[in-house]
Hints:
By secondary structure, this protein is mainly alpha-helical. The chain has a single domain (2-419), classed as Orthogonal Bundle (Preprotein translocase SecY subunit). Helices cover 69% and strands 5% of the residues. The chain is built from 18 helices and five strands. It has helices at residues 2-10, 12-31, 41-47, 55-62, 66-69, 78-93, 95-101, 104-136, 151-178, 183-193, 196-209, 214-236, 272-290, 294-302, 308-329, 332-341, 353-387, 396-419, and strands spanning 238-245, 248-250, 253-255, 259-265, 344-345. A three-stranded antiparallel sheet has the order 4-1-5. A two-stranded antiparallel ribbon has the order 2-3. Helix 6 (78-93) crosses helix 13 (272-290), helix 8 (104-136) runs antiparallel to helix 9 and helix 16 crosses helix 17. The mean pLDDT is 79.
Amino acid sequence: MLKSVQNIFSIAELRRRILFTLGMLAVYRVGCHIPTPGIDAQVLAGFFVGTEGTLLGMVSAFTGGALERMTVFALGIMPYISASIIMQLLGVVFEPVSRLTKEGEQGRKVITRWTRYGTIVLSLIQGAGIAVGLQQMTGPAGEPVVPAAGPGFILLTMLTLTAGTAFIMWLGEQITERGIGNGISLIIFAGIVANIPVAVVNSLRLIQTGAVSLFVMIFVLALMVAVVSAIVFMERGQRRLPIHYAKRVVGMRNLGGQKSHLPLKVNMSGVIPAIFASSVIMFPGTVASLVDIQWMQNFAAMMVPTHFLYNVIFVAFIVFFCYFYTAVTFNPVDVAENVKKQGGYIPGIRPGRATSDYIDDVLTRLTFAGAIYISLVCVLPTILVGAFNVQFFFGGTSLLIIVGVGLDTAAQIEAHLISRSYEGFMKGVTLKGRQG
């Protein structure tokens, strides 16, 4: 392992990319501690006491504690993810956007620009909602969170939070282009990992005070290790469809007659369904928790990770986004056509339409298995942790994102090393990047 790390930093381009990524993540973490003007931080901290395991606690965890401290990055990257979801849905149901998706690089640039505009609009809306909600919030002794409430504070908060989200979006794009790994996923990864020391301290404090027994904590740690092992196993799992190539003569050479395979991952969409589902379910719940309307307050009370309704909605969104993202990123018709053009076929399946139908059928079953796997990882650990009254939110969704993003980043580093004839990052292990 030490030799592999030395190999990483011996490649100038890879070293530059890794250091650039770390630098951008450091900038993000600094921004998570710059407070939004006009807010009494001490009173706000009192409001968030005891929100571990609630929807607000989960949102704060995804933003690396920025929401709890109400910093300039309080909205995090979620508006960008929501805008991306909207654009991808429009690409399926709205013809002008659908045409852009088929125009290659030029169309992708237009969609990216529209996504940025959508991010700004959503950030302004969410910023206004948070500003109004902050003006209605009070601390434990009834003191206001916003000492000088009014239209000026609302406008200032909207502009500050929107600028923060736009800057995070820019950081993510810079990491993707000039660094290593997917920038948006790494920013979410950094926000979750930043909460690990606090979670460890809280756990030790709970054991010392007797609120949680040592046996329960050991069980929770064993559960986390088991979940991580399951994630690694399933993320590397794939169904290999055999591909045979017919013999053909090209000039003086005989080509073909070879056997290969088409790898279909069990989880084609990776951590995207969990991130998308979390983003969608967070938005209405967060707005409801900040608005003083009774039915919305009742809805917000049910939107906690341990509530049955929350988990039903969460699983439904995960299943939907598993199928949706797989359909967007993998086209069986194009794959079957490419195999046919290369003189290949699946044994027992006719080339062309029959091959695409067969691939689609296999992919549908694999996606269902992947959706069940992601749902179990995201839901069951959270329910068990809540049942044992462990007061910090570090459930299956967080573990899935941490492990999934870590594997993707390691796969990119592996590809850089192998392309330069260096030994892989991990001996005896072949890391494959995720589709899409």
